[in-house]
Design brief:
alpha+beta, globular, 60s Ribosomal Protein L30, Chain: A, 7-stranded mixed β-sheet, 12 strands, 2 domains, homodimer, 35% helix, Phosphoribosyl-aminoimidazole Synthetase, Chain A, domain 2, 311 residues
Chain lengths: 311, 311
Protein backbone atom coordinates (compact mmCIF):
# COMPACT_ATOMS: atom_id res chain seq x y z
CA UNK A 1 0.00 0.00 0.00
CA UNK A 2 1.47 3.38 -0.91
CA UNK A 3 1.57 6.15 1.69
CA UNK A 4 -1.88 7.73 1.98
CA UNK A 5 -1.72 11.54 2.10
CA UNK A 6 -5.43 11.52 3.03
CA UNK A 7 -6.63 8.92 5.55
CA UNK A 8 -9.51 6.55 4.69
CA UNK A 9 -12.86 8.05 5.59
CA UNK A 10 -11.98 11.67 4.80
CA UNK A 11 -13.99 13.42 2.06
CA UNK A 12 -11.54 12.74 -0.75
CA UNK A 13 -8.68 10.41 -1.58
CA UNK A 14 -5.27 11.45 -2.82
CA UNK A 15 -2.12 10.08 -4.42
CA UNK A 16 1.38 11.52 -4.29
CA UNK A 17 2.74 12.11 -7.79
CA UNK A 18 6.19 13.48 -7.05
CA UNK A 19 7.47 16.47 -5.10
CA UNK A 20 4.71 17.70 -2.82
CA UNK A 21 2.11 17.38 -5.57
CA UNK A 22 -1.08 15.42 -4.96
CA UNK A 23 -3.73 14.12 -7.30
CA UNK A 24 -7.04 14.38 -5.46
CA UNK A 25 -9.88 12.02 -6.33
CA UNK A 26 -13.44 11.62 -5.14
CA UNK A 27 -16.32 9.39 -6.14
CA UNK A 28 -19.89 9.74 -5.02
CA UNK A 29 -23.00 7.86 -6.04
CA UNK A 30 -26.38 9.54 -6.12
CA UNK A 31 -29.34 7.12 -6.26
CA UNK A 32 -32.71 8.65 -7.02
CA UNK A 33 -34.69 6.83 -4.37
CA UNK A 34 -32.54 8.03 -1.47
CA UNK A 35 -30.89 11.22 -2.76
CA UNK A 36 -33.50 12.85 -4.96
CA UNK A 37 -36.44 14.31 -3.04
CA UNK A 38 -39.91 14.71 -4.47
CA UNK A 39 -40.15 17.91 -6.47
CA UNK A 40 -36.56 17.84 -7.73
CA UNK A 41 -36.36 17.49 -11.50
CA UNK A 42 -33.70 15.59 -13.43
CA UNK A 43 -31.69 18.68 -14.32
CA UNK A 44 -31.58 19.62 -10.62
CA UNK A 45 -30.74 16.05 -9.55
CA UNK A 46 -27.80 15.95 -11.95
CA UNK A 47 -26.60 19.37 -10.87
CA UNK A 48 -26.95 18.31 -7.22
CA UNK A 49 -24.70 15.30 -7.86
CA UNK A 50 -22.04 17.78 -8.98
CA UNK A 51 -22.57 20.07 -5.97
CA UNK A 52 -22.25 17.10 -3.54
CA UNK A 53 -18.83 16.30 -4.96
CA UNK A 54 -17.63 19.87 -5.34
CA UNK A 55 -18.58 20.49 -1.70
CA UNK A 56 -16.15 17.80 -0.59
CA UNK A 57 -13.43 19.35 -2.73
CA UNK A 58 -14.29 22.74 -1.21
CA UNK A 59 -13.85 21.31 2.29
CA UNK A 60 -10.37 20.10 1.33
CA UNK A 61 -9.47 23.38 -0.36
CA UNK A 62 -8.98 21.71 -3.75
CA UNK A 63 -10.21 22.99 -7.11
CA UNK A 64 -12.10 20.34 -9.09
CA UNK A 65 -10.63 20.14 -12.59
CA UNK A 66 -12.42 17.33 -14.40
CA UNK A 67 -15.31 14.94 -13.83
CA UNK A 68 -16.30 11.56 -15.15
CA UNK A 69 -19.92 10.53 -15.03
CA UNK A 70 -21.44 7.06 -14.90
CA UNK A 71 -25.17 6.96 -15.46
CA UNK A 72 -27.35 4.00 -14.52
CA UNK A 73 -30.49 4.60 -16.54
CA UNK A 74 -33.89 3.00 -15.89
CA UNK A 75 -35.84 1.94 -18.99
CA UNK A 76 -38.57 4.43 -18.13
CA UNK A 77 -36.33 7.39 -18.97
CA UNK A 78 -36.71 8.98 -22.41
CA UNK A 79 -33.95 10.46 -24.56
CA UNK A 80 -35.05 13.96 -23.49
CA UNK A 81 -34.66 12.93 -19.82
CA UNK A 82 -31.11 11.79 -20.46
CA UNK A 83 -30.33 15.08 -22.20
CA UNK A 84 -31.75 16.93 -19.19
CA UNK A 85 -29.38 14.96 -16.97
CA UNK A 86 -26.46 15.81 -19.24
CA UNK A 87 -27.39 19.50 -19.21
CA UNK A 88 -27.62 19.52 -15.40
CA UNK A 89 -24.23 17.83 -15.06
CA UNK A 90 -22.55 20.27 -17.43
CA UNK A 91 -24.25 23.27 -15.81
CA UNK A 92 -23.07 22.16 -12.37
CA UNK A 93 -19.53 21.53 -13.59
CA UNK A 94 -19.31 24.93 -15.31
CA UNK A 95 -20.58 26.76 -12.19
CA UNK A 96 -17.45 25.56 -10.41
CA UNK A 97 -15.03 25.86 -13.33
CA UNK A 98 -14.76 22.11 -13.98
CA UNK A 99 -15.45 19.99 -17.05
CA UNK A 100 -17.12 16.66 -17.71
CA UNK A 101 -14.50 14.80 -19.74
CA UNK A 102 -15.91 11.29 -20.01
CA UNK A 103 -18.12 8.62 -18.62
CA UNK A 104 -20.16 5.49 -19.02
CA UNK A 105 -23.84 4.65 -19.27
CA UNK A 106 -25.71 1.46 -18.60
CA UNK A 107 -29.12 0.15 -17.70
CA UNK A 108 -30.18 0.06 -14.04
CA UNK A 109 -33.40 -0.19 -12.06
CA UNK A 110 -32.80 3.09 -10.26
CA UNK A 111 -31.48 6.27 -11.76
CA UNK A 112 -27.86 6.22 -10.59
CA UNK A 113 -25.57 9.21 -11.12
CA UNK A 114 -22.01 8.40 -10.16
CA UNK A 115 -19.50 11.20 -10.35
CA UNK A 116 -15.75 10.91 -10.10
CA UNK A 117 -13.92 14.15 -9.66
CA UNK A 118 -10.25 14.89 -10.18
CA UNK A 119 -8.22 17.81 -8.89
CA UNK A 120 -4.67 18.66 -7.89
CA UNK A 121 -3.09 20.35 -4.92
CA UNK A 122 0.05 20.36 -2.82
CA UNK A 123 0.44 18.74 0.58
CA UNK A 124 0.66 22.02 2.47
CA UNK A 125 -2.60 23.33 0.92
CA UNK A 126 -4.75 20.29 1.66
CA UNK A 127 -7.21 20.74 4.53
CA UNK A 128 -8.04 17.50 6.36
CA UNK A 129 -10.53 16.56 9.07
CA UNK A 130 -7.76 15.61 11.39
CA UNK A 131 -5.57 18.61 12.22
CA UNK A 132 -7.54 20.54 14.85
CA UNK A 133 -5.89 21.30 18.21
CA UNK A 134 -7.71 22.25 21.44
CA UNK A 135 -8.77 25.93 21.54
CA UNK A 136 -8.95 26.33 17.78
CA UNK A 137 -11.85 28.53 16.71
CA UNK A 138 -14.78 26.68 15.14
CA UNK A 139 -16.45 28.52 12.31
CA UNK A 140 -18.93 27.94 9.51
CA UNK A 141 -19.52 29.62 6.16
CA UNK A 142 -23.22 30.35 6.70
CA UNK A 143 -26.24 29.72 8.88
CA UNK A 144 -27.93 26.30 9.04
CA UNK A 145 -31.44 24.97 8.85
CA UNK A 146 -32.86 25.96 5.47
CA UNK A 147 -32.32 22.69 3.54
CA UNK A 148 -33.61 20.52 6.45
CA UNK A 149 -36.71 22.72 6.64
CA UNK A 150 -37.10 22.51 2.86
CA UNK A 151 -36.85 18.72 3.02
CA UNK A 152 -39.59 18.64 5.64
CA UNK A 153 -41.80 20.54 3.20
CA UNK A 154 -40.88 18.38 0.17
CA UNK A 155 -40.78 14.99 1.82
CA UNK A 156 -42.91 15.19 4.97
CA UNK A 157 -45.60 17.64 3.77
CA UNK A 158 -44.85 20.34 6.36
CA UNK A 159 -46.25 23.79 5.55
CA UNK A 160 -44.93 27.34 5.46
CA UNK A 161 -46.06 30.69 4.03
CA UNK A 162 -45.64 30.85 0.25
CA UNK A 163 -42.59 33.08 0.33
CA UNK A 164 -40.70 31.19 3.04
CA UNK A 165 -41.65 27.87 1.48
CA UNK A 166 -40.16 29.02 -1.81
CA UNK A 167 -36.86 29.99 -0.16
CA UNK A 168 -36.62 26.79 1.88
CA UNK A 169 -37.50 24.48 -1.01
CA UNK A 170 -35.11 26.32 -3.30
CA UNK A 171 -32.26 25.69 -0.83
CA UNK A 172 -32.83 21.93 -1.36
CA UNK A 173 -33.35 22.03 -5.12
CA UNK A 174 -30.47 24.40 -5.87
CA UNK A 175 -27.73 23.83 -3.29
CA UNK A 176 -24.41 25.64 -3.58
CA UNK A 177 -20.97 24.38 -2.65
CA UNK A 178 -18.67 26.78 -0.77
CA UNK A 179 -15.82 26.34 -3.23
CA UNK A 180 -14.61 29.97 -3.30
CA UNK A 181 -14.43 29.97 0.49
CA UNK A 182 -12.59 26.62 0.65
CA UNK A 183 -10.06 27.62 -1.99
CA UNK A 184 -9.42 30.98 -0.32
CA UNK A 185 -8.93 29.31 3.07
CA UNK A 186 -6.53 26.71 1.69
CA UNK A 187 -4.15 29.56 0.80
CA UNK A 188 -4.03 30.93 4.35
CA UNK A 189 -2.62 28.00 6.34
CA UNK A 190 -5.12 29.16 9.00
CA UNK A 191 -7.37 26.10 8.88
CA UNK A 192 -6.42 23.12 11.02
CA UNK A 193 -9.42 20.95 10.12
CA UNK A 194 -12.30 21.16 7.67
CA UNK A 195 -15.36 19.20 6.58
CA UNK A 196 -18.57 19.96 4.76
CA UNK A 197 -21.98 19.48 6.35
CA UNK A 198 -23.83 17.30 3.86
CA UNK A 199 -24.54 14.70 6.54
CA UNK A 200 -25.60 17.34 9.04
CA UNK A 201 -23.82 19.75 11.36
CA UNK A 202 -23.88 17.42 14.40
CA UNK A 203 -22.38 14.54 12.46
CA UNK A 204 -19.67 16.78 10.98
CA UNK A 205 -18.72 18.18 14.39
CA UNK A 206 -18.39 14.62 15.71
CA UNK A 207 -16.24 13.78 12.70
CA UNK A 208 -13.84 16.66 13.30
CA UNK A 209 -13.69 15.71 16.99
CA UNK A 210 -13.04 12.04 16.19
CA UNK A 211 -10.48 12.65 13.42
CA UNK A 212 -8.62 15.40 15.31
CA UNK A 213 -8.91 13.78 18.75
CA UNK A 214 -10.40 16.90 20.32
CA UNK A 215 -13.73 17.94 21.83
CA UNK A 216 -16.11 20.61 20.61
CA UNK A 217 -17.99 23.34 22.46
CA UNK A 218 -20.58 25.22 20.43
CA UNK A 219 -21.43 28.58 21.96
CA UNK A 220 -23.43 30.10 19.15
CA UNK A 221 -25.46 28.14 16.64
CA UNK A 222 -26.25 30.20 13.54
CA UNK A 223 -29.76 29.36 12.34
CA UNK A 224 -31.13 30.87 9.14
CA UNK A 225 -33.98 33.30 9.81
CA UNK A 226 -36.45 31.53 7.53
CA UNK A 227 -35.57 28.17 9.09
CA UNK A 228 -36.12 29.58 12.60
CA UNK A 229 -39.51 30.96 11.59
CA UNK A 230 -40.45 27.67 9.93
CA UNK A 231 -39.46 25.79 13.10
CA UNK A 232 -41.50 28.13 15.33
CA UNK A 233 -44.62 27.90 13.14
CA UNK A 234 -44.35 24.11 13.01
CA UNK A 235 -43.51 23.69 16.71
CA UNK A 236 -40.10 22.21 15.88
CA UNK A 237 -36.90 22.78 17.84
CA UNK A 238 -34.85 25.15 15.64
CA UNK A 239 -31.56 23.94 17.13
CA UNK A 240 -32.41 20.33 16.32
CA UNK A 241 -33.32 21.37 12.78
CA UNK A 242 -29.93 23.06 12.36
CA UNK A 243 -27.91 20.32 14.06
CA UNK A 244 -29.47 17.13 12.78
CA UNK A 245 -30.79 18.11 9.36
CA UNK A 246 -28.72 17.30 6.34
CA UNK A 247 -28.20 18.28 2.73
CA UNK A 248 -26.41 21.36 4.03
CA UNK A 249 -23.34 22.44 2.11
CA UNK A 250 -21.72 24.87 4.51
CA UNK A 251 -18.11 24.27 5.48
CA UNK A 252 -17.21 23.63 9.11
CA UNK A 253 -13.72 24.79 9.95
CA UNK A 254 -11.29 24.70 12.83
CA UNK A 255 -9.14 27.83 12.61
CA UNK A 256 -5.87 28.57 14.40
CA UNK A 257 -6.71 31.52 16.71
CA UNK A 258 -3.64 33.57 15.75
CA UNK A 259 -4.58 33.31 12.07
CA UNK A 260 -8.30 34.02 12.53
CA UNK A 261 -8.01 37.53 11.04
CA UNK A 262 -6.23 36.20 7.98
CA UNK A 263 -8.88 33.49 7.45
CA UNK A 264 -11.74 35.93 7.88
CA UNK A 265 -10.20 38.37 5.42
CA UNK A 266 -9.49 35.68 2.80
CA UNK A 267 -13.10 34.47 2.88
CA UNK A 268 -14.41 38.05 2.74
CA UNK A 269 -12.30 38.81 -0.35
CA UNK A 270 -13.68 35.61 -1.92
CA UNK A 271 -17.19 37.00 -1.39
CA UNK A 272 -18.20 34.89 1.62
CA UNK A 273 -18.20 35.11 5.38
CA UNK A 274 -16.96 33.16 8.39
CA UNK A 275 -19.24 32.82 11.42
CA UNK A 276 -17.68 31.79 14.77
CA UNK A 277 -19.70 29.04 16.39
CA UNK A 278 -17.44 27.90 19.23
CA UNK A 279 -14.12 26.23 19.83
CA UNK A 280 -12.38 22.89 20.05
CA UNK A 281 -11.53 21.58 23.51
CA UNK A 282 -9.06 19.18 25.11
CA UNK A 283 -11.90 17.31 26.79
CA UNK A 284 -13.29 15.01 24.12
CA UNK A 285 -17.01 15.75 24.31
CA UNK A 286 -19.14 17.35 21.63
CA UNK A 287 -21.14 19.94 23.57
CA UNK A 288 -23.36 22.93 23.07
CA UNK A 289 -23.84 25.78 25.52
CA UNK A 290 -27.58 26.36 26.04
CA UNK A 291 -28.89 28.76 28.67
CA UNK A 292 -25.58 28.56 30.51
CA UNK A 293 -25.51 24.75 30.55
CA UNK A 294 -23.38 22.37 28.48
CA UNK A 295 -25.49 19.72 26.73
CA UNK A 296 -24.23 16.83 24.62
CA UNK A 297 -24.75 17.00 20.87
CA UNK A 298 -25.84 13.51 19.81
CA UNK A 299 -23.63 11.74 17.27
CA UNK A 300 -26.56 11.55 14.88
CA UNK A 301 -26.11 11.83 11.15
CA UNK A 302 -28.62 12.85 8.59
CA UNK A 303 -30.61 9.85 7.42
CA UNK A 304 -31.43 9.83 3.76
CA UNK A 305 -35.15 9.82 3.13
CA UNK A 306 -36.72 6.65 1.86
CA UNK A 307 -39.66 8.29 0.13
CA UNK A 308 -40.05 7.46 -3.51
CA UNK A 309 -39.41 10.26 -5.91
CA UNK A 310 -41.72 11.76 -8.44
CA UNK A 311 -40.25 10.13 -11.53
CA UNK B 1 -13.10 23.47 -22.50
CA UNK B 2 -9.45 22.53 -22.01
CA UNK B 3 -7.61 20.73 -24.80
CA UNK B 4 -8.51 17.03 -24.74
CA UNK B 5 -5.47 14.76 -25.13
CA UNK B 6 -7.88 11.82 -25.57
CA UNK B 7 -10.96 12.35 -27.75
CA UNK B 8 -14.47 11.67 -26.36
CA UNK B 9 -15.47 8.06 -26.91
CA UNK B 10 -12.02 6.52 -26.46
CA UNK B 11 -11.53 4.04 -23.59
CA UNK B 12 -10.21 6.55 -21.08
CA UNK B 13 -10.15 10.29 -20.49
CA UNK B 14 -7.07 12.37 -19.79
CA UNK B 15 -6.01 15.78 -18.52
CA UNK B 16 -2.75 17.60 -19.20
CA UNK B 17 -1.02 18.52 -15.96
CA UNK B 18 2.07 20.30 -17.24
CA UNK B 19 4.93 19.30 -19.51
CA UNK B 20 3.91 16.24 -21.47
CA UNK B 21 2.42 14.58 -18.39
CA UNK B 22 -1.14 13.29 -18.46
CA UNK B 23 -3.47 12.19 -15.71
CA UNK B 24 -5.55 9.33 -17.11
CA UNK B 25 -9.01 8.65 -15.74
CA UNK B 26 -11.66 6.07 -16.42
CA UNK B 27 -15.04 5.29 -14.91
CA UNK B 28 -17.11 2.21 -15.56
CA UNK B 29 -20.35 1.02 -14.04
CA UNK B 30 -21.11 -2.67 -13.61
CA UNK B 31 -24.78 -3.45 -12.94
CA UNK B 32 -25.55 -6.98 -11.83
CA UNK B 33 -28.53 -7.56 -14.07
CA UNK B 34 -26.66 -6.82 -17.31
CA UNK B 35 -23.00 -7.44 -16.45
CA UNK B 36 -23.02 -10.36 -14.03
CA UNK B 37 -23.94 -13.67 -15.64
CA UNK B 38 -25.58 -16.53 -13.80
CA UNK B 39 -22.98 -18.57 -11.98
CA UNK B 40 -20.65 -15.66 -11.20
CA UNK B 41 -20.32 -15.06 -7.48
CA UNK B 42 -19.92 -11.67 -5.81
CA UNK B 43 -16.16 -11.98 -5.40
CA UNK B 44 -15.85 -12.72 -9.11
CA UNK B 45 -18.26 -9.90 -10.05
CA UNK B 46 -16.22 -7.39 -8.06
CA UNK B 47 -12.95 -8.68 -9.51
CA UNK B 48 -14.47 -8.51 -13.00
CA UNK B 49 -15.35 -4.83 -12.47
CA UNK B 50 -11.64 -4.24 -11.88
CA UNK B 51 -10.59 -6.28 -14.93
CA UNK B 52 -13.01 -4.33 -17.19
CA UNK B 53 -11.36 -1.07 -16.17
CA UNK B 54 -7.79 -2.36 -16.19
CA UNK B 55 -8.35 -3.71 -19.69
CA UNK B 56 -9.12 -0.21 -20.94
CA UNK B 57 -5.95 1.07 -19.28
CA UNK B 58 -4.05 -1.81 -20.89
CA UNK B 59 -5.33 -0.79 -24.32
CA UNK B 60 -4.03 2.73 -23.76
CA UNK B 61 -0.70 1.50 -22.40
CA UNK B 62 -1.25 3.13 -19.01
CA UNK B 63 -0.57 1.59 -15.61
CA UNK B 64 -3.55 1.91 -13.24
CA UNK B 65 -2.34 3.41 -9.94
CA UNK B 66 -5.39 3.87 -7.74
CA UNK B 67 -9.08 3.08 -7.79
CA UNK B 68 -12.16 4.50 -6.13
CA UNK B 69 -15.20 2.32 -5.71
CA UNK B 70 -18.85 3.29 -5.42
CA UNK B 71 -21.14 0.48 -4.37
CA UNK B 72 -24.90 0.58 -4.81
CA UNK B 73 -26.10 -2.12 -2.45
CA UNK B 74 -29.52 -3.81 -2.54
CA UNK B 75 -31.13 -4.47 0.85
CA UNK B 76 -30.99 -8.21 0.22
CA UNK B 77 -27.18 -8.26 0.56
CA UNK B 78 -25.72 -9.33 3.88
CA UNK B 79 -22.63 -7.96 5.56
CA UNK B 80 -20.68 -11.04 4.43
CA UNK B 81 -21.74 -10.36 0.82
CA UNK B 82 -20.37 -6.84 1.04
CA UNK B 83 -17.10 -8.15 2.47
CA UNK B 84 -16.93 -10.61 -0.44
CA UNK B 85 -17.29 -7.68 -2.83
CA UNK B 86 -14.55 -5.79 -1.02
CA UNK B 87 -12.25 -8.81 -1.16
CA UNK B 88 -12.88 -9.25 -4.90
CA UNK B 89 -12.15 -5.59 -5.58
CA UNK B 90 -8.92 -5.65 -3.61
CA UNK B 91 -7.84 -8.94 -5.16
CA UNK B 92 -8.42 -7.55 -8.65
CA UNK B 93 -6.59 -4.33 -7.89
CA UNK B 94 -3.60 -6.16 -6.42
CA UNK B 95 -3.35 -8.50 -9.45
CA UNK B 96 -2.58 -5.43 -11.53
CA UNK B 97 -0.48 -3.54 -8.99
CA UNK B 98 -3.15 -0.95 -8.14
CA UNK B 99 -4.84 0.04 -4.88
CA UNK B 100 -8.38 0.85 -3.82
CA UNK B 101 -7.93 4.18 -2.04
CA UNK B 102 -11.49 5.28 -1.35
CA UNK B 103 -15.11 5.14 -2.26
CA UNK B 104 -18.73 5.54 -1.42
CA UNK B 105 -21.62 3.21 -0.63
CA UNK B 106 -25.35 3.69 -0.83
CA UNK B 107 -28.56 1.79 -1.21
CA UNK B 108 -29.76 0.80 -4.67
CA UNK B 109 -32.21 -1.68 -6.19
CA UNK B 110 -29.51 -3.39 -8.26
CA UNK B 111 -26.04 -4.25 -7.16
CA UNK B 112 -24.00 -1.46 -8.79
CA UNK B 113 -20.20 -1.50 -8.76
CA UNK B 114 -18.78 1.72 -10.13
CA UNK B 115 -15.03 1.93 -10.45
CA UNK B 116 -12.99 5.02 -11.16
CA UNK B 117 -9.40 4.39 -12.05
CA UNK B 118 -6.51 6.83 -12.06
CA UNK B 119 -3.16 6.49 -13.78
CA UNK B 120 -0.43 8.65 -15.29
CA UNK B 121 1.46 8.65 -18.54
CA UNK B 122 3.11 10.96 -21.03
CA UNK B 123 1.64 12.05 -24.35
CA UNK B 124 4.09 10.03 -26.44
CA UNK B 125 3.31 6.79 -24.57
CA UNK B 126 -0.46 6.96 -24.84
CA UNK B 127 -1.99 4.57 -27.40
CA UNK B 128 -5.26 5.82 -28.89
CA UNK B 129 -7.86 4.28 -31.19
CA UNK B 130 -7.22 6.92 -33.79
CA UNK B 131 -3.65 6.67 -35.07
CA UNK B 132 -3.70 3.75 -37.53
CA UNK B 133 -2.55 4.35 -41.14
CA UNK B 134 -3.33 2.14 -44.16
CA UNK B 135 -1.12 -0.99 -44.34
CA UNK B 136 -0.41 -1.13 -40.60
CA UNK B 137 -0.34 -4.69 -39.29
CA UNK B 138 -3.39 -5.72 -37.26
CA UNK B 139 -2.61 -7.99 -34.34
CA UNK B 140 -4.23 -9.38 -31.21
CA UNK B 141 -2.85 -10.67 -27.92
CA UNK B 142 -4.63 -14.04 -28.00
CA UNK B 143 -7.27 -16.13 -29.73
CA UNK B 144 -10.98 -15.32 -29.48
CA UNK B 145 -14.15 -17.24 -28.72
CA UNK B 146 -13.80 -18.72 -25.25
CA UNK B 147 -15.78 -16.14 -23.24
CA UNK B 148 -18.64 -15.97 -25.80
CA UNK B 149 -18.83 -19.79 -25.71
CA UNK B 150 -18.74 -19.70 -21.90
CA UNK B 151 -21.56 -17.16 -21.86
CA UNK B 152 -23.65 -19.41 -24.09
CA UNK B 153 -23.20 -22.14 -21.50
CA UNK B 154 -23.93 -19.91 -18.50
CA UNK B 155 -26.74 -17.82 -19.93
CA UNK B 156 -28.30 -19.81 -22.78
CA UNK B 157 -27.87 -23.34 -21.40
CA UNK B 158 -25.65 -24.62 -24.22
CA UNK B 159 -23.72 -27.81 -23.45
CA UNK B 160 -20.14 -29.00 -23.74
CA UNK B 161 -18.04 -31.86 -22.41
CA UNK B 162 -17.17 -31.40 -18.73
CA UNK B 163 -13.58 -30.43 -19.35
CA UNK B 164 -14.24 -27.95 -22.16
CA UNK B 165 -17.20 -26.53 -20.28
CA UNK B 166 -14.96 -25.84 -17.30
CA UNK B 167 -12.40 -24.00 -19.43
CA UNK B 168 -15.00 -21.95 -21.27
CA UNK B 169 -16.96 -21.00 -18.16
CA UNK B 170 -13.76 -20.13 -16.32
CA UNK B 171 -12.82 -17.68 -19.09
CA UNK B 172 -16.02 -15.75 -18.27
CA UNK B 173 -15.78 -15.96 -14.48
CA UNK B 174 -12.07 -15.14 -14.24
CA UNK B 175 -11.17 -12.83 -17.13
CA UNK B 176 -7.68 -11.35 -17.40
CA UNK B 177 -6.67 -7.95 -18.68
CA UNK B 178 -3.64 -7.77 -20.99
CA UNK B 179 -1.92 -5.12 -18.91
CA UNK B 180 1.64 -6.44 -19.22
CA UNK B 181 1.27 -6.55 -22.99
CA UNK B 182 -0.24 -3.05 -23.19
CA UNK B 183 2.44 -1.52 -20.97
CA UNK B 184 5.23 -3.23 -22.91
CA UNK B 185 3.81 -2.03 -26.24
CA UNK B 186 3.43 1.56 -25.02
CA UNK B 187 7.23 1.69 -24.64
CA UNK B 188 7.91 0.67 -28.25
CA UNK B 189 6.23 3.49 -30.23
CA UNK B 190 5.26 0.66 -32.60
CA UNK B 191 1.51 0.81 -31.98
CA UNK B 192 -0.50 3.27 -34.06
CA UNK B 193 -3.92 2.35 -32.63
CA UNK B 194 -5.20 0.14 -29.84
CA UNK B 195 -8.46 -0.94 -28.25
CA UNK B 196 -9.62 -3.80 -26.06
CA UNK B 197 -12.28 -6.26 -27.16
CA UNK B 198 -14.79 -6.17 -24.30
CA UNK B 199 -17.59 -5.28 -26.71
CA UNK B 200 -16.53 -7.91 -29.21
CA UNK B 201 -13.85 -8.19 -31.89
CA UNK B 202 -16.09 -6.98 -34.74
CA UNK B 203 -17.16 -3.90 -32.86
CA UNK B 204 -13.57 -3.07 -31.88
CA UNK B 205 -12.34 -3.44 -35.48
CA UNK B 206 -15.06 -1.04 -36.60
CA UNK B 207 -14.02 1.36 -33.83
CA UNK B 208 -10.37 1.39 -34.92
CA UNK B 209 -11.50 1.85 -38.54
CA UNK B 210 -13.84 4.71 -37.61
CA UNK B 211 -11.46 6.50 -35.25
CA UNK B 212 -8.41 6.09 -37.54
CA UNK B 213 -10.31 6.67 -40.79
CA UNK B 214 -9.00 3.46 -42.35
CA UNK B 215 -10.42 0.13 -43.46
CA UNK B 216 -9.65 -3.33 -42.12
CA UNK B 217 -8.92 -6.61 -43.86
CA UNK B 218 -8.78 -9.67 -41.64
CA UNK B 219 -6.88 -12.53 -43.25
CA UNK B 220 -6.56 -14.86 -40.29
CA UNK B 221 -9.02 -15.05 -37.41
CA UNK B 222 -7.48 -16.76 -34.36
CA UNK B 223 -10.15 -18.88 -32.69
CA UNK B 224 -9.41 -20.69 -29.43
CA UNK B 225 -9.34 -24.48 -29.89
CA UNK B 226 -11.94 -25.14 -27.17
CA UNK B 227 -14.22 -22.46 -28.62
CA UNK B 228 -13.92 -23.99 -32.12
CA UNK B 229 -14.78 -27.43 -30.76
CA UNK B 230 -17.73 -26.00 -28.80
CA UNK B 231 -18.99 -24.27 -31.95
CA UNK B 232 -18.69 -27.44 -34.03
CA UNK B 233 -20.50 -29.59 -31.44
CA UNK B 234 -23.29 -27.03 -31.11
CA UNK B 235 -23.55 -26.34 -34.86
CA UNK B 236 -22.53 -22.70 -34.38
CA UNK B 237 -20.36 -20.69 -36.78
CA UNK B 238 -16.97 -20.43 -35.01
CA UNK B 239 -16.08 -17.20 -36.86
CA UNK B 240 -19.32 -15.57 -35.71
CA UNK B 241 -18.60 -16.68 -32.15
CA UNK B 242 -15.15 -15.09 -32.29
CA UNK B 243 -16.27 -11.92 -34.07
CA UNK B 244 -19.53 -11.05 -32.40
CA UNK B 245 -19.17 -12.46 -28.90
CA UNK B 246 -18.11 -10.14 -26.13
CA UNK B 247 -16.55 -10.12 -22.68
CA UNK B 248 -13.23 -10.75 -24.39
CA UNK B 249 -10.27 -8.90 -22.96
CA UNK B 250 -7.68 -9.31 -25.70
CA UNK B 251 -6.06 -6.19 -27.10
CA UNK B 252 -6.48 -5.32 -30.77
CA UNK B 253 -3.55 -3.38 -32.14
CA UNK B 254 -2.50 -1.62 -35.30
CA UNK B 255 1.29 -1.89 -35.54
CA UNK B 256 3.62 0.08 -37.81
CA UNK B 257 5.12 -2.56 -40.16
CA UNK B 258 8.74 -1.39 -39.74
CA UNK B 259 8.43 -1.72 -35.95
CA UNK B 260 6.64 -5.09 -35.95
CA UNK B 261 9.70 -6.95 -34.73
CA UNK B 262 10.17 -4.54 -31.86
CA UNK B 263 6.51 -4.87 -30.82
CA UNK B 264 6.59 -8.66 -31.04
CA UNK B 265 9.76 -8.81 -28.95
CA UNK B 266 8.46 -6.42 -26.27
CA UNK B 267 5.29 -8.47 -25.82
CA UNK B 268 7.28 -11.71 -25.72
CA UNK B 269 9.57 -10.33 -23.00
CA UNK B 270 6.44 -9.32 -21.06
CA UNK B 271 5.30 -12.94 -21.20
CA UNK B 272 2.65 -12.63 -23.91
CA UNK B 273 2.33 -13.01 -27.65
CA UNK B 274 1.19 -11.03 -30.68
CA UNK B 275 -0.87 -12.78 -33.35
CA UNK B 276 -1.13 -11.16 -36.80
CA UNK B 277 -4.74 -11.11 -37.99
CA UNK B 278 -4.60 -8.81 -41.01
CA UNK B 279 -3.95 -5.23 -41.94
CA UNK B 280 -5.51 -1.80 -42.19
CA UNK B 281 -6.46 -0.55 -45.65
CA UNK B 282 -7.01 2.76 -47.41
CA UNK B 283 -10.43 1.62 -48.58
CA UNK B 284 -12.75 2.13 -45.60
CA UNK B 285 -14.48 -1.22 -45.36
CA UNK B 286 -14.17 -3.73 -42.53
CA UNK B 287 -13.64 -7.01 -44.37
CA UNK B 288 -12.62 -10.59 -43.75
CA UNK B 289 -11.01 -12.90 -46.30
CA UNK B 290 -12.91 -16.22 -46.37
CA UNK B 291 -12.18 -18.91 -48.97
CA UNK B 292 -10.56 -16.31 -51.19
CA UNK B 293 -13.50 -13.88 -50.99
CA UNK B 294 -13.76 -10.61 -49.06
CA UNK B 295 -16.90 -10.48 -46.91
CA UNK B 296 -18.10 -7.54 -44.82
CA UNK B 297 -17.80 -7.80 -41.04
CA UNK B 298 -21.04 -6.41 -39.61
CA UNK B 299 -20.73 -3.41 -37.27
CA UNK B 300 -22.37 -5.44 -34.52
CA UNK B 301 -21.43 -5.00 -30.89
CA UNK B 302 -21.81 -7.43 -28.07
CA UNK B 303 -25.22 -7.04 -26.46
CA UNK B 304 -25.26 -7.44 -22.73
CA UNK B 305 -27.44 -10.30 -21.63
CA UNK B 306 -30.71 -9.47 -19.95
CA UNK B 307 -31.01 -12.67 -17.95
CA UNK B 308 -31.40 -12.23 -14.23
CA UNK B 309 -28.50 -13.28 -12.10
CA UNK B 310 -28.38 -15.84 -9.38
CA UNK B 311 -28.40 -13.46 -6.41
Amino acid sequence: MPKMPVPFGDDVSACEIGGDKLVVLKTDMLVDKTDVPRGMNLWQAARKAVVMNVSDFAAKGVKPIAMLVSLGIPRSLRQSDIEELGDGLNAGAREYGAYVIGGDTGEASDLVINLSVFGMTTKDKLMLRSGAKPRDILAVTGPFGKPPAGLKILVDNFKASTEIEKTLVQSVLMPHARLKEGLALSQTAAVSAAIDSSDGLAWSLHEIARASKVGVLISSLPIAKDAARFAKNNKLDPSALALYGGEEYELILAVKPRLWGKAEKAVKIAGGKLLKIGETTAEKNVLMETSGKHVLIAPKGYEHFKTLTSF
